[in-house]
Design brief:
It contains five helices and no strands. The protein is mostly helical and 123 residues long. The protein is extended, with a radius of gyration of 27 Å.
Amino acid sequence: MMLFALLSASWHGRDSGPSSVPAEAKPQAPELPVPPALAPNSLGPGDKAERETAAATRLLAYHQELAAKGDTYGLYQMGRRYLHGDGVETNVSKALDLLGKAAQQGSAAAKAELEEFANSPRK
């Protein structure tokens, strides 16, 4: 019973007596520096639009990298971007090619996007 009380007290953060390890000898997690690019206010508090633009640019580059490797998700995202002109110039031919590749690899989202395109009225 005494062992349970000691374990319970230490589990709940209460000191139940002298510790066998001095406080200064207990290992502390090191504080790691945050890379400037990941710091929440690296551009300053008033630069929300700049942060959003930078994030959108990084996301586009990530999608392009995935698509270049033949990744299903990257192919779908870039196909969708080309179809809707999201961060890139609209290019229906490229969009259909990329979405078709993603659909062939089993992407249900790409298949749905292609079906929606096929059933939409053309301007």
